[in-house]
What does this fold into?
Amino acid sequence: MGYRTTEHTADIGIEAWGESLPLAFEEAARAMFSLMVDLDTVAERATRTQTVHAFERGDLLVGWLNELIGLVDSEGLVFRRFVVSSLTERDLTARSYGEPIDPARHSPHLAVKAATYHRLALDDGPPARVHVVLDI
It folds into this structure.
Protein backbone atom coordinates (compact mmCIF):
# COMPACT_ATOMS: atom_id res chain seq x y z
CA MET A 1 0.00 0.00 0.00
CA GLY A 2 1.13 3.52 -0.64
CA TYR A 3 0.64 6.77 -2.47
CA ARG A 4 2.48 9.52 -4.28
CA THR A 5 1.61 12.92 -5.64
CA THR A 6 1.81 13.74 -9.32
CA GLU A 7 2.37 17.07 -11.02
CA HIS A 8 -0.56 18.92 -12.54
CA THR A 9 -0.77 22.47 -13.93
CA ALA A 10 -2.55 24.30 -11.09
CA ASP A 11 -3.78 21.33 -9.08
CA ILE A 12 -2.20 18.21 -7.64
CA GLY A 13 -2.69 14.58 -8.58
CA ILE A 14 -2.69 11.58 -6.28
CA GLU A 15 -1.85 8.05 -7.29
CA ALA A 16 -2.62 5.46 -4.58
CA TRP A 17 -2.35 1.70 -4.53
CA GLY A 18 -3.11 -1.31 -2.37
CA GLU A 19 -3.82 -5.03 -2.46
CA SER A 20 -7.49 -4.28 -3.15
CA LEU A 21 -9.51 -1.34 -4.43
CA PRO A 22 -10.85 -0.50 -0.93
CA LEU A 23 -7.24 -0.30 0.31
CA ALA A 24 -6.31 1.94 -2.64
CA PHE A 25 -9.27 4.21 -1.74
CA GLU A 26 -8.00 4.37 1.85
CA GLU A 27 -4.52 5.33 0.64
CA ALA A 28 -6.00 8.06 -1.59
CA ALA A 29 -7.72 9.58 1.43
CA ARG A 30 -4.47 9.39 3.44
CA ALA A 31 -2.62 11.06 0.57
CA MET A 32 -5.19 13.85 0.39
CA PHE A 33 -4.97 14.56 4.12
CA SER A 34 -1.16 14.38 4.05
CA LEU A 35 -1.32 17.40 1.75
CA MET A 36 -3.41 19.26 4.34
CA VAL A 37 -1.56 18.43 7.58
CA ASP A 38 1.27 16.34 9.00
CA LEU A 39 -0.53 13.04 9.63
CA ASP A 40 1.83 12.14 12.48
CA THR A 41 0.36 15.01 14.52
CA VAL A 42 -3.27 13.87 14.14
CA ALA A 43 -4.76 11.78 16.96
CA GLU A 44 -7.74 9.46 16.57
CA ARG A 45 -10.15 11.24 18.94
CA ALA A 46 -13.13 11.54 16.61
CA THR A 47 -14.68 9.13 14.12
CA ARG A 48 -17.12 9.68 11.31
CA THR A 49 -18.88 7.19 9.09
CA GLN A 50 -19.49 8.00 5.45
CA THR A 51 -21.92 6.28 3.12
CA VAL A 52 -21.75 7.25 -0.53
CA HIS A 53 -24.07 6.13 -3.34
CA ALA A 54 -23.19 6.70 -7.00
CA PHE A 55 -23.56 5.36 -10.53
CA GLU A 56 -20.05 3.85 -10.67
CA ARG A 57 -16.93 3.32 -8.57
CA GLY A 58 -15.14 6.41 -9.89
CA ASP A 59 -18.02 8.53 -8.67
CA LEU A 60 -17.67 6.80 -5.29
CA LEU A 61 -14.03 7.84 -4.92
CA VAL A 62 -14.65 11.45 -5.91
CA GLY A 63 -17.83 11.62 -3.80
CA TRP A 64 -16.13 10.16 -0.73
CA LEU A 65 -13.10 12.44 -0.94
CA ASN A 66 -15.39 15.44 -1.36
CA GLU A 67 -17.46 14.34 1.64
CA LEU A 68 -14.25 14.21 3.69
CA ILE A 69 -13.32 17.70 2.48
CA GLY A 70 -16.80 18.79 3.56
CA LEU A 71 -16.07 17.54 7.10
CA VAL A 72 -12.91 19.65 7.16
CA ASP A 73 -14.93 22.70 6.12
CA SER A 74 -18.08 22.12 8.20
CA GLU A 75 -16.71 20.51 11.38
CA GLY A 76 -13.04 21.49 11.30
CA LEU A 77 -11.94 17.85 11.41
CA VAL A 78 -8.79 16.29 9.96
CA PHE A 79 -8.30 12.55 9.61
CA ARG A 80 -5.31 10.20 9.60
CA ARG A 81 -6.80 6.73 9.19
CA PHE A 82 -9.54 5.39 6.95
CA VAL A 83 -11.27 2.02 6.75
CA VAL A 84 -13.43 1.23 3.71
CA SER A 85 -15.66 -1.53 5.05
CA SER A 86 -17.77 -1.96 1.92
CA LEU A 87 -17.18 -1.08 -1.73
CA THR A 88 -19.46 -2.19 -4.54
CA GLU A 89 -20.08 -0.75 -8.00
CA ARG A 90 -22.53 1.79 -6.55
CA ASP A 91 -21.99 2.01 -2.79
CA LEU A 92 -19.18 2.81 -0.38
CA THR A 93 -19.18 2.69 3.40
CA ALA A 94 -16.12 3.96 5.25
CA ARG A 95 -15.05 5.11 8.68
CA SER A 96 -12.56 7.94 9.21
CA TYR A 97 -10.48 8.57 12.34
CA GLY A 98 -9.08 11.95 13.33
CA GLU A 99 -9.70 15.01 15.46
CA PRO A 100 -10.57 18.72 15.34
CA ILE A 101 -7.82 20.68 13.65
CA ASP A 102 -5.47 22.60 15.92
CA PRO A 103 -3.45 25.00 13.74
CA ALA A 104 -0.66 25.23 16.32
CA ARG A 105 -0.19 21.46 16.50
CA HIS A 106 -1.17 20.31 13.01
CA SER A 107 0.75 22.91 10.97
CA PRO A 108 -1.76 23.13 8.09
CA HIS A 109 -0.22 22.87 4.63
CA LEU A 110 -2.48 23.08 1.56
CA ALA A 111 -6.19 23.81 1.44
CA VAL A 112 -7.83 21.18 -0.75
CA LYS A 113 -11.01 22.53 -2.35
CA ALA A 114 -12.32 19.44 -4.13
CA ALA A 115 -11.60 16.10 -5.73
CA THR A 116 -12.24 16.28 -9.48
CA TYR A 117 -13.02 13.91 -12.32
CA HIS A 118 -10.08 15.18 -14.37
CA ARG A 119 -7.80 12.20 -15.23
CA LEU A 120 -9.75 10.00 -12.80
CA ALA A 121 -8.67 6.36 -13.12
CA LEU A 122 -9.32 3.14 -11.22
CA ASP A 123 -7.61 -0.19 -11.83
CA ASP A 124 -8.49 -3.39 -9.94
CA GLY A 125 -4.89 -4.56 -10.29
CA PRO A 126 -3.13 -6.31 -8.80
CA PRO A 127 -2.12 -4.09 -7.20
CA ALA A 128 -5.27 -1.99 -7.27
CA ARG A 129 -4.56 1.63 -8.24
CA VAL A 130 -6.48 4.90 -8.29
CA HIS A 131 -5.59 8.31 -9.66
CA VAL A 132 -7.47 11.50 -8.83
CA VAL A 133 -6.71 15.19 -9.29
CA LEU A 134 -7.38 17.57 -6.40
CA ASP A 135 -8.32 21.23 -6.80
CA ILE A 136 -6.12 23.22 -4.43
